[in-house]
Amino acid sequence: MAAKKTSDGIKLSDDLLKVVDGLVAGASSSSVTEDDIQLAIKDIDVDSDELSDLYDELRSRGVEVSGSPASDAVEDFSSDTPVDDDFDDDDDSVESFDDDEEESESVAEAKIVKEALRSVPKARVAKPKRSSRARARRADTSTAMLTGDPVRMYLKEIGKVDLLTASEEVNLAMKIEAGTDAADKLEAAEAGELELTRAEQRRLMRIEQVGLDAKQQLISANLRLVVSIAKRYVGRGMLFLDLIQEGNLGLIRAVEKFDYTKGFKFSTYATWWIRQAITRAIADQARTIRIPVHMVETINKLIRVQRQLLQDLGRDPTPEEIGAEMGMSPDRVREIQKISQEPVSLETPIGEEEDSQLGDFIEDSSAVAPPEAASDSMLREQLDQVLDGLADRERKVIKFRFGLEDGHPRTLEEVGREFGVTRERIRQIESKTLAKLRHPSRSGRLKDYMED
Known about the structure:
Order of helices and strands: EEHEHHEHHHHHHHHHHHEEHHHHH
Number of domains: 4
Oligomer: single chain
CATH architecture of the largest domain: Up-down Bundle
Largest sheet: 2 strands, antiparallel
Distance between the termini: 110 Å
Number of helices: 19
Strand order of the largest sheet: 1-2
Radius of gyration: 41 Å
CATH class of the largest domain: Mainly Alpha
Structural class: mainly alpha
């Protein structure tokens, strides 16, 4: 791209001259911030030399860049470095970059690092070292917080972050958008779909980091909104902290989807995502037996209608009245009411002293009654004694035919294969054996067990 010389002999491309003209025209109090410069050049490929020339041109036109790195060097910044509400960009305690870096690249790197420092949420302060007594008091306070109420500790932590104005929300949203675009370009470059120079990659990585910091700041400033919404859902089967956690996931989703060009406040938009995340979590996790989300919504609607009819009628409404109000059949209303019932543990304590459990009072219809169990045992003993008086072959045929051994009666064909004879022969043996069992000397023992 052709470069033009300015009145001061600085060479700039046509695109960068347009950027300079725009920044000069929009400069307030003859100064611009580095954030303004980064947003203005986010779609232009600029190397470190061109970036340095852009700064020189702005100064030559009487526009100062706040936090300019030309005079100061900055140490590497990590997420563990505490920052102060009163952080000064001209702090003399910062260190310089490595000497083996090119001078122009050092200038650009220092500028972007300062930009990252400025965009970090104001929270903690890098203060001078305190005395050992002060550190001990601080350690005691931390221990008390760890052993105290976790909800109170969490509320105290999120209360340290200042709320944002509408203009600050828009500014952060713009940084997030720029960071997302930069991340997409870097991803395309890794996939081989886009060619980027080393300087372009560094610039995009810095813009991406600024966007991530802005995202974190927007989330941190709205954590109190999640708490206020989560309070409305207490008592629906989930702990308060769990509701807050689910709401925070909705808040993160809202930050990713927020469109600042619509003109509404972020809190208005985020409220819907937070409520959706909490209600979905309650539907999925609050009950022992999960109920589909659409059924949860139907149950909530039925409860609202039932409560309204109770106020109007002065009594509990019938399924017919609820069905007429909701436009469904009474049977469907009864089915929904049955689904909405909460499960009860069989180990629920019962009685004043709670020495019994609910399961102790529920009849087991599949269990055998003690009198019947005793009668069956005695019948088995008598039957074994009667069969012992038969021949070995006759006893086996009767046991196979009536399933006295394993409860599985066999056909004549199966018994015949067992003994290696025809089914007719098995039928004859069975008939002869049953005739013996009908003799009063044998049947008299079993007659008492016959049901009327």
